[in-house]
Design goal:
By secondary structure, this protein is α+β, with helices and mostly antiparallel strands. The chain is 18% helix and 33% strand. The protein folds into two domains: 2-160, 3-Layer(aba) Sandwich (Rossmann fold); 170-264, Elongation Factor Tu (Ef-tu), domain 3. The protein has helices spanning 19-30, 48-58, 101-106, 131-144, 245-249; strands at residues 6-11, 35-40, 66-71, 82-87, 90-95, 109-114, 154-156, 170-172, 175-183, 189-194, 201-207, 210-213, 226-230, 235-240, 256-264. Strands 8, 9, 10, 11, 12, 13, 14 and 15 form an eight-stranded antiparallel sheet that branches. The chain is elongated, with a radius of gyration of 20 Å. The model has no long low-confidence stretch (mean pLDDT 95).
Length: 265
């Protein structure tokens, strides 16, 4: 039932200011019985790579029909589109700036609209700086209440939706080259190389001038030691046992990573 749908929120707003609370207030005014789940509000400011990763890896864990409102929006107030996207398994609402790339790569789109109908906004004239409050939160709440997608605006070709231009993961002989796609609060560097690509193999990772051994668990190296292993998201990640790989290596998003396959175990 539409009234039973969940809404999730993902932003770079943080919790120091009232932005997240205001968005929830707007949603509650439209439907106070909706369940709202915060995926995260600690995306680094304007970091679309981090937002894309967090939404992509969270999306599969929510029930079918969940409405995901994601607002990391460096282009707010410009000509970038505001969109709502219907998938076979749920809905996406937010700026058309690439934030939905990872989800769209894995889910089938059934329809997409540009949010051009101000009847479903908070007010007819939106702020130039807070579309999360004025457009995305109310549209998400309307979708949860069962408003048809086509009432929200003009249908657009899903092919035109913006995708992030992310580096590819490539393989040449015994070397897989990927990149850092996310850095978590522990300083763990998450690559785009999947754990399945090195299953039952011996391997190491080279990045930031270091050769880092491939391990199964954190306990395979001494405290303070660098290691690489398959993380909970299914990707190879670089970590420090009890420390921060990000601080130690001083590399950032999209930095290249070379995984060298040695031999079968």
């Amino acid at each position: 039932m539409p009234g039973d749908r969940l809404i999730t929120l993902l932003t770079d707003f943080g919790l120091q200011d009232n932005y997240v609370g205001v968005m929830k207030g707007v949603i509650a005014r439209i439907n106070p019985d909706l369940n709202i789940i915060d995926i995260t509000h600690d995306i680094p400011p304007q970091n679309l790579d981090a937002a894309n990763f967090c939404l992509m890896t969270a999306y599969p864990y929510f029930p079918s029909g969940t409405i995901h409102v994601a607002v990391v929006d460096p282009g707010v107030g410009t000509q970038r589109k505001a969109v709502a996207i219907e998938l076979l398994t749920g809905f996406l609402v937010g700026p058309d700036n690439g934030i939905f790339t990872g989800v769209l790569d894995h889910e089938k789109i059934t329809m997409a609209v540009e949010l051009t109908n101000p009847e479903y906004w908070l007010k007819p004239e939106s702020s130039a700086t807070f579309h999360g409050r004025d457009i995305f939160a109310p549209v998400g709440a309307r979708l949860a209440a069962g408003t048809p997608l086509l009432k929200l605006g003009m249908e657009i070709d899903p092919v035109t939706l913006t995708r992030l231009d992310l580096p590819a993961c490539t393989r040449s002989d015994d070397v897989i080259t990927g990149y850092i796609q996310y850095i978590d609060r522990f300083g763990t560097l998450v690559t785009n190389i999947t754990g399945t690509s090195v299953k039952d193999l011996q391997w190491s990772v080279t990045t930031g001038g270091q050769i880092i051994p491939g391990c199964k668990t954190y306990g395979n190296t001494r405290p303070g030691g660098l290691l690489a292993l398959e993380g909970g998201h299914g990707f190879i990640e670089i970590a420090v046992n009890g420390g921060s790989a990000n601080s130690l290596l001083e590399i950032g998003y999209r930095s290249p990573v070379h995984l060298v396959i040695k031999q079968k175990i």
